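Attaching the record inline, Q. Sequence:
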Amino acid sequence: MDAGETPEQAVIRELIEETGLVPTSATLLGTHTHDWTLADHTLRVNLHLFRCPVGAGDVVQEEKSAYGHAWVSPEEAITYDLLEANANLIKKFLLQSCESQDLG
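Structure, as predicted:
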């Protein structure tokens, strides 16, 4: 995040900068803390998951920053080879989503 920027402002800015897509809003769905165990220390990261409906724009892929992109469901996303922290966040989101739905 840039100085003085809210998480919502940061995710909108980053989405535009990194994908070319312009979201109409950013709604925080949840957060997840993950500890990366490195050789000489532990690095704690706080991940934030946002729902960002896209209003305009075309996908622009920066060759230096990404190998590719795909639109997938959260259920399909967890089958990808993801960083552990990202996989945990997606699984946490799926669990919360299932618990919040009236399945009866």
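Helices lie at 7-19, 74-77, 84-100. The chain has one domain: 7-100.

More tomorrow.
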